[in-house]
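Lab notebook, bench 4. Still working through the backlog of constructs that have no structural model yet. Next entry is a single chain of 172 residues. Request: give me the structure tokens for it.
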Amino acid sequence: MKTPFAIWITGMPASGKSTIRNALVKRLEEAGIHAQVLESDEIRKIITPKPSYSLEERDNFYRTMVYIGELLVRNGVNVIFDATANKRLYRDNARGAITSFIEVFVKCPLAVCMQRDPKGIYKKAKEGEAATVPGLQEQYEEPLNPEIIVESDKEEPEAAAEKILQFLMRSF
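Model written out:
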């Protein structure tokens, strides 16, 4: 691939984004392609070490995340965004800033996400410890025209990674 790319893997919390990202990174490495992962939880530790998850904080966080991704792609680094980005605006901003952009929607029923809940996000929401969980208290705006849709309750992560890799090979 000659053109650096950015892939945004989006979906509700616990939909399977990180599992798919891990499988994708493995497939890319097997194909000799390196990509820098921008994982929201890791970046949040630096940008907002004591996050409030307020709407203003989220807007600033995602604006910063898009800026970092755009800088990397502009300098020849492939990027994988692993972030819920519950507003379409966040992902659309990345699409506008990065020419070679792919949006991957990890579609998963809320009940399955709540059952998985590896970080305890939904449990915290139910117990009143979290007030802005996308899919519960905050709306998750599904992508209108993602390049790829993965139904994580029906597709294995490796199959999803292969689907993304094949799209990349055809597109860039």
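Notes after review: Residues 30 and 139 are 37 Å apart (CA to CA). The longest helix spans residues 55-74. Flag for follow-up if needed.
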